[in-house]
Amino acid sequence: MASPVTSKGLGPEPSARASAGQSRHPWERFAECDPYLYILTPMKHTDPRVFWESGEQLVGAELLPVIRAEGVRLSLAMELGCGIGRLMFPLSRTFAHVVGVDIASGMVQRAAALANDKGINNVSFATISGPEDLLHQAGEYAGNCDFLYSLLVFQHIADVSIIEGYLHVTRTLLHPRGLAYLQFDTRDADALYRIKTHLPDFLLPRFLRRGIRRIRRSPQEIEAWIRRAGLEIVGQLTPESEYHRYILRLRQPKRTLS
User: Fold this and answer.
1) Strand order in 97-102's β-sheet?
2) What are the contacts of 20-24 at 24+ separation with CB within 8 A?
3) What DSSP line would sit under 45-84, residue for residue?
4) N or C, fewer C-beta in 10 Å, the chain?
5) What is the pTM of this model?
6) Residue 70's domain spans which residues?
7) CATH assignment at residue 140
8) In whole angstroms, what separates CA 238 from the centre of its chain?
9) Within-domain flag for 93
């Protein structure tokens, strides 16, 4: 299923959206300002070498062991919130084709250019505006995605309906034996956290401001969303932490005794 590097626009171009009165998404600004640092905030300062090495290490130490242990097919992988390709590029050495989607066209354009520069020709990219847009554009992959993953993305989404939408699209895209690997921040929303979330942005450090700050969710509400989407949990890593990962498959119908 390999295909040339592409950058697909979904719906109106950013300029058309702006002319229609829609506000510019914060991640477009982050893509222009410093995509390396906004994607990997623990770096503290921009260092492309550290950025790319972190992707290689994460894929090798975290994603590939799960893929191998679960017997995932190696045909098609998809990343929700691909940024500029930190995880896609190393993973492209394992899968026949890797698709990356992101809400920031600036990220997608950089990722496509970098893939071309690196000679990686089994990846493709799309700019999306949300779950419905993803489903519309990725319809050709319905039921064929072997590994769908998203790290450091859902923790920034404030609108619960959008998260649920992506979970429903995940169910549609997954191959019957496919695997989803999704990260959330499930730390307790303590008093200090609640105070910080109610302060105006100008009083907060930049990585605690709206659009980039981490939004904590309880495992109970996340697991309810997962069930409603028709998915089931087959594993969890570091639960109740800032880096809580859920390993999901399509929910299997219950067998009845005849």
Assistant:
1) 7-8, 123-127, 97-102, 76-80, 145-150, 174-184, 244-250, 231-237
2) none
3) S--HHHHHHHHHHHIIIIIHHHHHHTT--SSEEEEES-TT
4) C
5) 0.85
6) 7-250
7) 3.40.50.150
8) 18
9) yes
